[in-house]
Amino acid sequence: MTAQEIFQLLRERFGEKTILALYQTDTSDRRNPIVFDPPQIHVAGAQIAAVCRYLKEHEATRFEALMSLSGVDNGPVLSVIYHLHSMSHRHKIALRADNGRAAIPICRPSRSFGPSPPGTNGRPATCLGSFLTVIPTCVR
């Protein structure tokens, strides 16, 4: 399947409020345009787990492998890029989920998160890990 076909499949299933855009290039810098390989589908952050599961289980896509996971700090917005690959269909796509920095929860030291991160002197630390908790859902 092409990126456009995957995008259309997701739009039909989840709608335009969840599947926001398909990015194949970034031309914000005209002298140095960026070509996304694979193209990125922008997904509403709260729905990323449902979209990943659908892409894994749908017969036409079968994205069974998470090739890489990247975090991008865009100032007030934190993005997570999921690079997915289908070994059975030999196609790939990237999903991008954004979250406002203010929405990232504060982790307090506890058994569930382990000890305080080094250098925090026991103070609460911003926990990007909480935003990434959907990772196991995508690859189960």
CATH fold call: Beta Polymerase, domain 2
Fourth-tier CATH superfamily name: NADH:ubiquinone oxidoreductase Nqo5 subunit
Q: Based on helices, strands and strand pairing, what is the structural class? A: alpha+beta
From the alpha carbons, calculate the radius of gyration and give it in angstroms.
17 Å
Q: What is the count of DSSP helices, taking H or I runs of 4+ residues?
A: 4
Topology as H/E string?
A: HEEHEEEEEHH
- State the share of residues found in helices, binned by percent: 10-25%
What best-fitting shape do the alpha-carbon axes yield? globular
Tell me the fraction of residues in β-strands, as a range: 35-45%
Please give the order of strands in the largest beta sheet: 1-2-5-4-3
Tell me about the largest β-sheet: 5 strands, mixed
Per CATH, the class reads Alpha Beta
Q: Give me the CATH architecture, please.
A: 2-Layer Sandwich
Give short descriptive properties of this protein.
140 residues, alpha+beta, Beta Polymerase, domain 2, two-stranded antiparallel ribbon, 4 helices, 7 strands, 22% helix, disordered C terminus
Notes on the protein architecture:
The chain is of the alpha+beta class and 140 residues long. It is built from four helices and seven strands; from the N terminus they run αββαβββββαα. The chain has helices at residues 3-14, 48-57, 128-131, 135-139; strands at residues 19-26, 34-44, 65-74, 77-86, 91-100, 106-107, 125-126. The strands form two sheets. It has a five-stranded mixed sheet, with helices on one face.
